[in-house]
C-alpha cells in the first residue's frame, strides 16, 4: 500500500474537519476521494502531501511517515492544487525548467525534461509564451506537467478539472489516463461522480469528515440503487408526512421528497401504496439518474429500496 | 536551489517593468524636484544636491521593500508556496529569493541615482574605502527592510494589503534628515526624526560620501541596521512558520 491512513483526525479549534478517516491506496491505482464542498477533501490532500499536520492518526505515504519524515515523503510525491500554481510572468518552458532545477537536475537535463513534458502535454507551440496568455485548460496542463518533472510515485490532484469547460475537462482526463499507463499512483479529489467514475479504480466517499462509503465504482453504484424518485406534493405537511411514512430526503422549498430507488416498477408500487394507505396525496412522480446528491442521500440517510 | 529561486524573482521583476520603473523613476523625480524646486530655499550648508543623494537612495529602498512584500503576498496567495513546499526543498528559500531580488533591484536603483546625481552636479569627496563602507551600510539597511517587506507579505491577506507597508516606507524618510536638516523641524518632530533608524543611516552615508561630520552616528546606524535586520529576519521566519503550520 503506497498510501496508508489510519484514524486521521484534524481539528481547528472546536471545528472537526476530519473525524477518523481510514484509507488505503494500492501502488499504481487511481484513487478517488469524492465529496461535496466542506467534506474535508482538500484538508486530507494537504495532510498527505505534508503541507498540513494531522491532529492525530497515522499517515504513511510511499512507506514514510508524513509527520516524522516529511522530506522523504516530498521526494516521492507531487501536488497539483485546486488553483494552478504557475508563474504568469514566466513562459511555460521557464516554469518547467525552474521546477526541474529545484529538483536538482543539471541545466541541460532540466531543459530536456521541459521539452519532453511540453511535447507530452501539447504545449510546444505555447512553450515560449508567458503563461498569462494561456487558456484555463493550458494552465492546468502546465500545472500537471510541473508536477511530473521529477517522476513522482504518487500524484495528488485536488479537483483537477473544477472550473474547466467540457472540452478542456476531457483533455485533462486524457492526460490523467495517460499517467495511469505509466504506472504512477494517482490520488484525486473531485465533486463530480462522473469524473470519479471515469478515472478511479476505487472511490471513497467523504461526508463531514467521515468516510461514508468505500469501494469500486460499480459497487458504489449498486449501493446507490441507480435512480431517484422525486415525489411532488402540494403542501409542506404532506411532504413531511410522506417522509415519515416512506423515508427519503425532503426538499422543503420545492415541496419534493427524494427517494433512492432501484428504478423497478415494484419499488414504485410499494412507495405509492404506502402513501395511499396513509391518505397522502401525491401530485406527480418523476425519476432521474443519480447525481452526487443522490449518492449522499442514499448513503447518509440510510434509505434503501 | 536558492539560486534558482533568486533567478525566478529577478526574472519576475524584469517582466514587470512598471514596478521597477516606478521604484527608480519616482525617487529620481523627487530628487530633481528637491534639487531644482525646493533645494534653493533649504539651507544645508552645502550644495543641496550633495545633501539630498543619501536620502534619495534610502527612498528607493522603501520601494524595494514594498515590492518585496507584494511579490511574497502574491506567492502565498496563489498557491505557489504550496507547490514549493511540497517539493523536497526548503520552502523558506522562496522568501530568500525575493529578498535577494530586492537587493539586486536596489543596487541598480542606487547606481542610477548616483549617476543621475553626478549629472546634476553631485560631487562626492569619498575615497574608495568610504564608498565601500557606505555601500556596506546601505546593503545591511536594504536587507533589513526587504526582510521586513517579506514578513509583511507573509501575513498580508492580499497583494493590496501588502502594499499598505509602502505608506510607512515612503512616508518615514520625510520625517528624517533625508531632505531637510532635522534642526529646522519643530521640537516634537525633531524627536521622532532624530531617533528613527533612517536619520543615522542617512547621516552616516552622507558623511562618508561628502565628508560631513559623522561622529558616533556611524555606530548608531550600524546598530540600528543590524538590529533591524536581525529583528525582521526573525519575524519573517517566525511568521512563515506560523502561516505554514496548520
UniProtKB/TrEMBL annotation, chain A:
Broad class of where this protein is predominantly found: membrane
Keyword Transport: yes
Keyword Transport: yes
GO cellular component, one term: plasma membrane
Residue ranges of every copy of the ABC transporter domain listed in the record: 3-233
GO molecular function, one term: ATP binding
Gene3D superfamilies per the UniProt record, alphabetical: P-loop containing nucleotide triphosphate hydrolases
Keywords: Antibiotic resistance, ATP-binding, Cell membrane, Membrane, Nucleotide-binding, Translocase, Transport
Location of this chain's protein in the cell: Cell membrane
Topological type in the membrane: Peripheral membrane protein
Residue ranges of coiled coil: none
BP terms from Gene Ontology: daunorubicin transport; doxorubicin transport; response to antibiotic
Domain of life: Bacteria
Sequence similarity: Belongs to the ABC transporter superfamily. Drug exporter-1 (DrugE1) (TC 3.A.1.105) family.
NCBIfam families cross-referenced by the UniProt entry: drrA
Protein name according to UniProt: ATP-binding cassette domain-containing protein
Source species of the chain: Lentzea tibetensis
From TrEMBL, chain B:
Keyword Transmembrane: yes
UniProt similarity note: Belongs to the ABC-2 integral membrane protein family.
Subcellular locations according to the entry: Cell membrane; Membrane
Membrane topology of the entry: Multi-pass membrane protein
Record field: transmembrane: 20-42, 48-72, 92-119, 131-155, 162-180, 219-240
Keywords attached to this entry: Antibiotic resistance, Cell membrane, Membrane, Transmembrane, Transmembrane helix, Transport
Organism taxonomic ancestry: Bacteria, Bacillati, Actinomycetota, Actinomycetes, Pseudonocardiales
Official protein name in the record: Transport permease protein
GO molecular function, one term: ABC-type transporter activity
GO cellular component, one term: ATP-binding cassette (ABC) transporter complex
Matching InterPro entries: ABC2_TM, ABC2_TM_bact-type, ABC_2_transport, Nod_factor_ABC_transporter
Predominant subcellular localization, coarse grouping: membrane
Start and end residues of each ABC transmembrane type-2 domain: 18-243
Gene Ontology terms describing biological process: response to antibiotic
Record-linked PANTHER family: NODULATION PROTEIN J
PROSITE patterns: ABC_TM2
